[in-house]
C-alpha cells in the first residue's frame, strides 16, 4: 500500500481516484471545489491544500484542465512544491504543453524529486472502467515504481521517452482524433447530401479499410444527433492550440490540424463549446446547408 496524493477530482479525476482506493492504497485528495463526498466515503482523506497533500503522500498525482492550472497547483501559493521532500514522485496526468512540462520537470527535479508526465486517452468511460491509455514521459526507474498504480487506472501503458514526450504523444493523439472526426463528418455529410442513407453507408464502411473507432462511435453520434459530451469541443480546442503553438516553435506546418481547429472555432462561436467534439460536423453542415440525415434531392438523372 502506498500513500498517494490526488489533486483534481473532476470528470476524470473522480473515477481515477476511486480506482486507486479500490486497489488498496491510502489516498489524500484535494480539489478546487472540495473533495466529492463519495470519494471521501470510499476512504480518501480530504486535505486543505495541494501542499498538505504533498506533505502526506509519497506520490502526488495531478489531474487538472490546462497548463496554467498545473503551474498553479505545483508552484502557486500552498502548492505541491511547498510540501515536497526529496525522494517523492510527482505525476501530472493532465493534458498540457510539452514545452512547459519540461520546465516543470526541471523545477521538481531540483528539489530532489522525480517527475512524470502521464496524460491519458479514453475519456470518462475509460476512467470509470480503468481502461485508459496512458502515455508516459520521464525516467524509467520512476515509471517502474509507479506502473502498478497506472495499471489500476489504465490498460495500454507506454513509457514513450523523457519528460515532455508523454505530452507530445497526447498532442499527437488529439491531432489524429480531430482529423478523423473531420474525415468521418465529411464522408457522412457527402453521402447524405447525395441522397444515400448515412446509417447504411456507415454500416458498409465499418466492414472495410475505412473502419475506425471514430467512424463507429462518433459516426453514430453524428447520425443520431447525440452531441452531449463525451469530450467537450473546448477541451479539444485547447489540445489543438497546444499542437499548433508547439508546431510553430518547432518550425512544423500542420495545415489540416489548423483547419480542424477552425471548424471547432466555428462550433464554439455558435454556442457549442460544451458540445461533444463529434459535433464538429455541425460546422461542415453549415457550409453545406445540409444536415446529415435530412432528405436530399437526388443528383441522379
Structure, explained:
With 301 residues, the protein is an alpha/beta fold. 51% of the residues lie in helices and 13% in strands. It contains 13 helices and 9 strands. The protein has helices spanning 13-22, 37-41, 50-56, 67-75, 98-109, 123-129, 140-153, 165-193, 198-205, 213-224, 233-250, 255-269, 281-288; strands at residues 3-7, 26-30, 45-46, 59-62, 89-92, 114-117, 120-121, 132-137, 154-161. The longest helix has 29 residues, at 165-193. The N and C termini lie far apart (72 Å). The relative contact order is 0.10. The mean pLDDT is 95.
Descriptive key words:
301 residues, alpha/beta, six-stranded parallel sheet, three-stranded mixed sheet, 13 helices, 51% helix, elongated
Distance between the termini: 72 Å
How helical, in percent, are the residues? 40-55%
Uncertain segments: none
Average pLDDT rating = 95
Question: What proportion strand?
Answer: 5-15%
Strand sequence of the main sheet, in spatial order? Answer: 3-2-1-4-5-6
What sort of overall outline do the alpha carbons produce when their principal axes are compared? elongated
| Main structural class | alpha/beta
The number of helical segments is 13
Order of helices and strands: EHEHEHEHEHEEHEHEHHHHHH
How big is the Rg? 21 Å
Number of DSSP E strands? 9
Question: What kind of sheet is the major sheet?
Answer: 6 strands, parallel
